[in-house]
UniProtKB/TrEMBL annotation:
Lineage: Archaea, Methanobacteriati, Methanobacteriota, Stenosarchaea group, Methanomicrobia
Catalytic residues (UniProt): 67 (proton acceptor)
Keyword field: Hydrolase, Magnesium, Metal-binding, Nucleotide metabolism, Nucleotide-binding
Keyword Hydrolase on entry: yes
A GO-annotated cellular component: cytoplasm
Organism: Methanocella arvoryzae (strain DSM 22066 / NBRC 105507 / MRE50)
EC numbers: 3.6.1.66
Role description: Pyrophosphatase that catalyzes the hydrolysis of nucleoside triphosphates to their monophosphate derivatives, with a high preference for the non-canonical purine nucleotides XTP (xanthosine triphosphate), dITP (deoxyinosine triphosphate) and ITP. Seems to function as a house-cleaning enzyme that removes non-canonical purine nucleotides from the nucleotide pool, thus preventing their incorporation into DNA/RNA and avoiding chromosomal lesions.
UniProt binding sites for substrate: 10-15, 68, 143-146, 164, 169-170
Protein name (record): dITP/XTP pyrophosphatase
Amino acids binding Mg(2+): 38, 67
GO molecular function per UniProt: dITP diphosphatase activity; ITP diphosphatase activity; metal ion binding; nucleotide binding; ribonucleoside triphosphate phosphatase activity; XTP diphosphatase activity
Length: 189
């Protein structure tokens, strides 16, 4: 039986690699590098659902999109849904500057994967990964905020894709989606 093909709309090659590693045995995954309007909203679920609906209509095929953010307790959840913009403007060094002298360094990554097929409502899947912010950048692995985040005192910037895929927020959301999608496909067969 031929594996179904899923279309992951993302500019981010790192996100695509992580998803591809988790789906390899189940689905063919193709990256679509497409720009779509991003809903300005504080809720990642609403942002991802809006993007998935838009892309499924524009491309006339089922798609997944993923939106994620870093939520820092000491900064009242900042940068949250604005993480990509903050990463582009002040980067990891700017976040570390904001956290200078702050001892409470708990933070979490949140990932929301949204699936939508033309004519359907989006379905969303959420994953959360708790950890702490480091006081300096460590490692060259991963992307984005990975070099300033630690999980159980292990710097994420030093993790391989495989190690990160064992514990990350994206893994949790993607696995929830994968299970749901497999059930959806089996119900049709």
């Amino acid at each position: 039986m031929q594996k179904p093909t899923l279309y992951f709309v993302t500019h981010n090659a790192g996100k695509f690699r992580e998803a591809q590693a988790l789906f390899r045995e189940y689905f063919n995954l193709e990256q679509i590098d497409m720009t779509y309007p991003e809903l300005q909203e504080d809720d990642l679920s609403k942002i991802a659902a809006y993007g998935a609906r838009y892309c499924s209509v524009e491309l006339d095929r089922p798609v997944i999109v993923e939106d994620s953010g870093l939520f820092i307790d000491a900064l009242n959840g900042f940068p949250g849904p604005y993480s990509a913009y903050v990463q582009k403007t002040i980067g990891n060094k700017g976040i570390l500057k904001l956290m200078e002298g702050v001892s409470a360094r708990r933070a979490e990554f949140r990932s929301v994967v949204a699936y939508c097929a033309p004519g359907e409502e989006p379905t969303v899947f959420t994953g959360i990964w708790w950890g702490d912010l480091l006081t300096e950048e460590v490692g060259t692995g991963g992307f984005g905020y990975d070099p300033i985040f630690s999980y159980r005192r292990f710097p994420v910037g030093e993790m391989t894709v495989e190690q990160k895929n064992e514990v990350s927020h994206r893994r949790r959301a993607l696995l929830e989606f994968r299970q749901w999608y497999e059930n959806k496909l089996n119900a049709v067969r």
